[in-house]
Structure formats: structure tokens, C-alpha cells
Amino acid sequence: MGDLSTFFELFDEPFIHRALIGGFLTGSLGGLIGSFAVLRQLAFFSDALGHSALLGITLGILLNVNPTFVLIPFAIIFAFLVNNLVERSSLPTDALLNIVYSSSLAAAVLALSKINSYSGSIKQLLFGDILGITASDIYITLILFIVSIIYLVFSLRSHVLLTLNEDLAGSIGINTRFHKLAFIILLGIVVSVSIKSVGVLLISAFVVIPACAGRLISRKFSSYIVFSMVLGGMCALFGLILSGFFNLPSGPSIVIFQFFAFLFSLIFSRAYNLVE
Q1: C-alpha to C-alpha distance for 151 and 158, rounded to whole angstroms
Q2: pTM (2 decimals)?
Q3: DSSP string, 152-165
Q4: For residues 184 and 79, is the Cβ–Cβ distance under 8 A?
Q5: Distance between CA 196 and CA 214 in Å, rounded?
Q6: CA–CA separation, 152 vs 174, rounded Å?
Q7: Is 210 in contact with 31 (CB distance < 8 Å)?
Q8: What is the radius of gyration, based on Cα positions, of the chain?
Q9: 4, 75, 168, 208: which sits with the fewest CB atoms below 10 Å from its CB?
């Protein structure tokens, strides 16, 4: 356990302020996107995107370009290609995604191990560094958060119908292919922007766990989205505080907090018969 005076002195540091704001935004954004991804059964897709993002970071290092600038276009192209592969293949989706992300992760780790100019650590890429985020990272996350809310609010009816019955949605004139692709690309951008804070291995937890916890304690779709966002943001804040107090890695601390929030939601939902 850390010293209390040292712990409170941490809150005077600008990097802690940036971490708390960035963590809250990233957690809330993960909850928002995750609430749709979980219902659309895209949780494993987000995991595959997160693991494959390491290959995009490697490309940025090889090209001597800031990996963040390479990661977003890489995630968009990757999401588009994988979506086409899944649609055109007769193989099970989870098996295809497993092949893609395992191969991408292995290729990225092999390439990184041979790049002498790379000054960072693979551990930092795998588990993220939320304490190292900059003001520009916060602005990018905030803009993406606002864009995501606007897109999902204006296309809410289409996504709800797509979730309930894709054939029905198509029969009443909804462009199902467009909305499916648009959401997958949005998911890819969210994953790529969040990688620096959360890391490759933990990004799917930010998308999946708050959404599953929110689903357990919600009866209405609107409250489900709000609960998922709030849980994602608050778990990030409390996880960061926990990591500062006990001097623990920030990303894993946030995920552990999310896990306990999920357990609490599970117990709460059973106690009040919210599980249908």
C-alpha cells in the first residue's frame, strides 16, 4: 500500500489529470461502442482488431512515422478487409478471426524483435500506458466520442433493427450492408485510438465488460447504453486511483475494477430479478 501523502501529491501532477480525463473518456467510449458491439455479437471482432493493431504499430515504426497516424487508416482497412473475408467465406467467423489476429500478432512481435531503432517495450504496447497520454490524445478521443454519439443517435433505429432481425431491417428499406460496415469501421477507429491508453491485450475488456455489466442491470435499450458508458468511465477513474494508491499497472487495474463491476451487476440483477 502506498503512502497517503505521496498518493495525494500525485493529483497535483498534470500527467495524472490527463490520465484521469483520458481514462474516463476512453472508458465511456468503450462502453458506448461496446453496448452495440455486444448485442451485435462483435465482441470477438473487437478483440481481433485489438490484437491485429500491433501489426499497424509495427508498420508505423518501420516507416519511422508516429504509430498513431498509421494505426487509424490501418484499422479502417483491416476492418474492411476482415468484414469482406467473413462475408465471403463459408468458415465459422470465430475461426477466421482467430487465424487473422493470431497471424497478425505473431508477425508484429517477430518484426518488433528485429527492429533495433525501436526504443519502446513490447510490454507497453501489450498493456498500454494511460499515464503517458498527451493533450492531443485527449482531444482526439473527445472528438471521436462526440462523432460516435452523433452517428449512433441518428442511426439508432437502423442499428436496433439490425440487432433484432437483419432480414426484417433489409425488407423495410434499411441499407444493412452500409450500416454494418460503418459500425465496424467506427469500432476499428475506436480500438486504434484507445490502444495507446489500454494496450493491445486489454482493449477488448474496455469494449466488452462495461457493456455486459450494463446489460445485466438494464431493461431498456436507452438505459443500457447510458449504464454501459457510465460504468466504463467510472471503472477507468477508480481503476486509475487504485493503481496510484497501490502502485500497480494502470491498465490491468482498470480491467480488474471492470470485472468487479461486472460481478456486482450480476449479483444485483439476480437479486432484483433483472435477468430475463
Answers
A1: 11
A2: 0.83
A3: HHHTHHHHHHHHH-
A4: yes
A5: 25
A6: 15
A7: yes
A8: 19
A9: 4
